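One such given next:

>
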Amino acid sequence: MTFWRKIVMVFELAAKSITVFGRTDLMWRRKMRICRRCVIYDHTMRRCRPYTGAEVGCGCYVPFMAKVKEHCWAKENLPDEGLGW
């Protein structure tokens, strides 16, 4: 693979990441505030599961999940509880 092809690939990857991570920081911060107040959120591991082996929560790393997902696990699976974003 040539040097220029590698450069093009880096720019293509950067363009794709903008569409995936294109959420605004305000949106991300709002989601993070909601997660930090959620009963499912594990503050030490920063994940969507209160403890290892729990049946609630998806277990995702919340700072990343808040960037890429439209709705959190609690909103999709526990809609009547009023949790999540």
Remarks:
- The mean pLDDT is 87.
